[in-house]
């Protein structure tokens, strides 16, 4: 405990993913939970499979890109 | 709000996926929620990793196919 | 197949929840999937436990309400 | 994008939950994502419904408590 | 690893829930994974919020009951 | 009902995945639920995207391997 599921667009660099894992873990460590108890599971979703505003993000968020 | 996670077998065509995103978004728009607030996340699962009746669907649902 | 998880704020009326279940099921029925194969699971989340813009929605979306 | 689902034991104080929402959001803001795009959904699970080591945490983690 | 999320109707007895946690953990222990690495998270969903066949299970599965 | 989501590292053999599907289904069959009502959905996560102890498991669990 805790278990954290993160859903992001495909394309974040491995460096950004490491920062996300480390950053989220630290949020819980600050509350007194040991880091070995924190699991952070990253789910990569292609932009074409992420709907927002009724359309795939490839159309409705054409200019947004995952951070590299 | 809302966030909708859809789990389907791998193999739906992009056209079907667009219809799913649009259709689910409209269900919420009809209740008065703006479409920009609706996120629909599609998780594709290979049939071999979807168990039903105690077996992978590749065995227990051999003749079912995702809509193309 | 499919399995759909819907995450909404606590407070939707039972009538709205029925419409969501029926509407999402129909999206798949239109693609040729039989309605008995569609499972729609509704997760109600208190607004205080739904973060948006770095704060609970009770603060950052004070004036938004679930549809009744 | 992103959507983050956090699963924790029931019993975190509202103050801790606010810190979790704010802290996780900031992890993404640091990568350049605007805070209004980050949704953090907190799922509270009773310890009796969280299994670890083959038993409910009420038995296998009798002395662990959520941070208040 | 692994993390298992179980979604069931509200109403399973605590005895059944213990059996589910123990049984699922054992499935992984048999593959050589230590039991302390297996987390089983039980999500109880009211029958009225579980849609099947386009209706809440309170209507479409009126006679089914969770095991007590 | 039930719907079970299993999150594991990428790399389990198809034989192990079949055992997991069969084993988890049997846990519910023993409580009186018919096997055709049990859906087990396997999510494979690359070790680099599974954080534990604040790092990807490729670093913090370098020597652990999925069962083949």
Structure description:
Six copies of one chain form a homohexamer. With 68 residues, chain A is of the alpha+beta class. Chain A has one domain (3-60): Macrophage Migration Inhibitory Factor, CATH 3.30.429.10. The first copy, chain A, is 29% helix and 28% strand. Chain A contains two helices and four strands; from the N terminus they run E-H-E-E-E-H. Chain A has helices spanning 14-29, 57-60, and strands at 3-9, 39-45, 50-52, 55-56. In chain A, the strands form two sheets. A two-stranded parallel sheet of chain A has the order 1-2. A two-stranded antiparallel sheet of chain A has the order 3-4. The longest helix of chain A has 16 residues, at 14-29. The first copy, chain A, is elongated and about 40 Å long. The first copy, chain A, starts with a strand and ends in an 8-residue tail after the last helix. The mean pLDDT of chain A is 97. Strand 3 of chain D pairs antiparallel with strand 2 of chain E, so a sheet runs across the interface.
